[in-house]
Write a structure and sequence with these properties.
Radius of gyration: 16 Å
Structural class: alpha+beta
Oligomer: single chain
Number of strands: 7
Number of helices: 9
Strand order of the largest sheet: 1-2-3-4-5-7-6
Distance between the termini: 31 Å
Strand content: 15-25%
């Protein structure tokens, strides 16, 4: 049985782990990283730490195996990351002698100079989300359950739109978001952006 519930601080390790094992276009990125936390530092953990009220997890008998995290205000969250999240990580990863893979170094580059979500998208769809599920939870409606709860909370808070970015190679993810009601907004060779007006 799968339970959908609010995130708690005890779930942080699970956020990191799930983010890693889904971090290669929805597939396991463990072999690409020497530092198992780097992908989570960017795409999962800061939401659990800084905006836990906008995070939910899916838990089965084996433990937490999925999450949805996000923020209702992308620009405000980016500013908060600059104040409260990135500085310590930039110090931690400043040493060029660290034993990092090329993929690790790409994540470090993101920490050092985070790219902004496209301004035209944020203006219309100010909230954004990230969601990942371990393979054992896929195809059971768990992702849609998490998504619908997050959308309901955002709508209740008066949020006017939600956006997300997905790897252009993640065909399953792209199909899921479109099934969930998100419409394509723009794309390039690496990323596809989707939005939902509320």
């Amino acid at each position: 049985m799968v339970t959908l519930r609010s995130y708690t601080p005890a779930d942080l390790d699970a956020l990191y782990d799930i983010c890693l094992v889904t971090g290669a276009g929805g597939h396991d990125a463990s072999a690409l990283h020497n530092d198992r936390q780097l992908v989570g530092h960017v795409y999962a953990a800061p939401y659990g730490v800084l905006e836990p009220e906008h995070a939910m997890v899916a838990e089965d008998d084996e433990g937490v195996a999925g999450y949805i995290v996000g923020t209702f205000d992308t620009d405000a969250f980016a500013a908060r990351l600059e104040r409260e999240w990135w500085p310590a990580l930039r110090q931690r990863y400043a040493d060029p002698a660290l034993d990092l893979t090329e993929t690790d170094r790409q994540r470090v580059a993101t920490i050092m100079a985070p790219p902004a979500d496209p301004a035209n998208i944020v203006a219309t769809y100010p909230a954004h989300i990230h969601m990942n599920l371990r393979a054992r939870l896929r195809g059971q409606g768990v992702g849609m359950g998490l998504l619908n709860r997050w959308i309901a909370d955002a709508r209740g808070a008066g949020v006017r739109g939600i956006h997300l970015g997905v790897s252009a190679s993640n065909g399953g993810g792209i199909a899921f978001w479109q099934k969930g009601g998100f419409v394509p907004l723009q794309h390039n060779a690496r990323s596809a952006w989707f939005g939902m007006a509320l």
